[in-house]
Amino acid sequence: MNAISSTENQEKSLLPLDTVFTLEAELSEEQIRFLNTYGFLHFRGVLSPEEVKIVTDTQEELEQRWLNEGVSEIRGVPIFFGPGLGAKEVSYRLPFCSEFSPKLKALLDDPRFEPIKALVGDEVRIGHNEQDGVVINRYVNAEGSVRPGLGWHTDGLRDIFYLRKPQQMLNFGLHLDRVSKEEGGLRLLPGTHLQGMLAMMFRKPYFISHKPHKAELAVETLPGDMTVHDGRLWHRVAQNKKVGTQRRSLFVPYMTGEPIIREENSKPVFYHRLGRWARRIKGGR
Ligand SMILES: O=C(O)CCC(=O)C(=O)O
Ligand SMILES: [Fe+2]
Description:
alpha+beta, 285 residues, Jelly Rolls, 14 strands, eight-stranded antiparallel beta sheet, binds 2-oxoglutaric acid, globular, binds fe (ii) ion
């Protein structure tokens, strides 16, 4: 990332927090300054409607296949199922998706994402088989759902569970639904990526707190939008209050540093065991 200091960033970055950018062959200085200052960027229409369908079709195929086969985890990472909008059960979180879909893998390897990768560094790779791999999420507000939203967290803390110092990391989210502020969706706390380690660990109780923050930004998306956020930024997914609604997103980890490859027979990760335990308390599985 470029080395403009954060105070200089604050002075120069005049664009409003809710600016939505267009992804071009290179990122502009303004975009980089925005990312350095606030810890995120939002791009409109990075995937075409046909490409959004590739992702949602992959989600449906994989969840159906794993449900039929009674698979409950992939490489030690749970896939959890629950009620969807129709009669069928659905999965709320599918890990390692690109490993099972060549079409999806090819889409994510498309050159349009190069300027984003360049932000992370020279030796950057998509973590197709690292940590949780490429994840497709589904948040459902329906009777019995244990995942209508996701509490406050940073993504960087995962590294601590893997017993290593949080690496520089950017998370890339592809948004698959139209979501207005009233319909819930991604909420970010701009600038919190510049905090120290203590604030990253203790600002809020991880995944437990869903309380709106006065400084939070609601990211309003159209299908095919992309967001990039710093792994140290605090964020959450606000639930849609309306029953019978869902939101879907795909997360791509761009990695640097020593890979931690997850194999077929990898043991469950500690924080996923905690998650499973918490879901069971809520009556899920
Ligand atoms: O669905 C989203 O937009 C965010 C998901 C997220 O924060 C996560 O999986 O860590
Ligand atoms: Fe996250």
